[in-house]
Design a protein that fits this description.
This protein is of the alpha/beta class. The protein is about 45% helix and about 15% strand. The protein has helices at about 15-25, 30-40, 45-55, 60-70, 90-100, 115-125, 165-180, 185-190, 200-215; strands spanning about 1-5, 25-30, 80-85, 110-115, 125-130, 135-140, 160, 195. The strands form 2 sheets. A 5-stranded parallel beta sheet has the order 2-3-1-4-8, with helices on both faces. It has a 3-stranded antiparallel beta sheet with strand order 6-5-7. It is globular and about 60 Å long.
Length: about 220
């Protein structure tokens, strides 16, 4: 079973990918993680990617596809995978299809986590954490029991991720929408795309994703 998960930053697709990994034993292939692993391992493609990133440039599609190709040959990915963060463009989708065809494989299901952008901005921009123990909170959905005091360790210093602000989140959502919009019809026309409610509770989203994946086998 070979899957692609689509969804904007902060929608929870990483969590859903990990749950699918645990349930089905599929390799979770997050492109950012694969790039970092290739760089850390000092592979040929890793060294090329490192030089490009060090120059402040985007890693070209061909290099990302080469990294994915190498990853698919590893033992844990031979029975199936979940792609998270790739493809982002039609050119990448076509390159992926070509790569898989060359290995006698194909995409079985594409699952899109649909979101309400205003609600997602509120969900992400309200996050903060204890600077001492790392416990996570939210301004609206999970405030500390005593204002300004961590429930876990009693710490009084809190931090927010620099990019967890409303303006940055909206920019990331806009970029995702522009990049991914053309991909949805590409997979829908082939009968591969299922959209689920990404704003539901985590367990409810998991149930929807699993139903979509189970349906791919029929």
């Amino acid at each position: 079973m070979n899957l692609i998960l689509f969804g904007p930053p902060g929608c929870g697709k990483g969590t859903q990918a990990e749950r699918l990994h645990e349930r089905l034993g599929l390799a979770h292939l997050a492109t950012g993680d694969m790039l970092r692993a290739a760089v850390a391992a000092g592979t040929e493609v890793g060294r090329r990617a490192q030089a490009i990133m060090a120059a402040g440039e985007l890693v070209p599609d061909k290099l990302v596809v080469d990294i994915i190709a190498g990853r698919l040959d590893q033992a844990d990915a031979r029975d199936g995978f979940i792609l998270d963060g790739f493809p982002r463009t039609l050119a990448q989708a076509r390159a992926l299809d070509e790569l898989l065809a060359g290995k006698g494989r194909r995409i079985d299901r594409v699952v899109e986590l649909e979101v309400d952008e205003d609600a997602l901005v509120e969900r992400i921009s309200g996050r903060f954490a204890c600077a001492t123990c790392g416990a996570g909170y939210h301004d609206r959905f999970k405030p500390t029991k005593v204002e300004g005091v961590c429930d876990q360790c009693g710490g009084t210093d809190f931090v927010r991720r620099q990019d967890d602000n409303a303006e940055t989140v909206r920019e990331r959502l806009g970029a995702y929408r522009r990049q991914t919009a053309p991909l949805l019809p590409y997979y829908r026309e082939r009968g591969l795309l299922t959209s689920v409610d990404g704003m539901a509770g985590i367990d409810q989203v998991t149930a929807q994703v699993e139903a979509a994946v189970d349906g791919a086998g029929h």
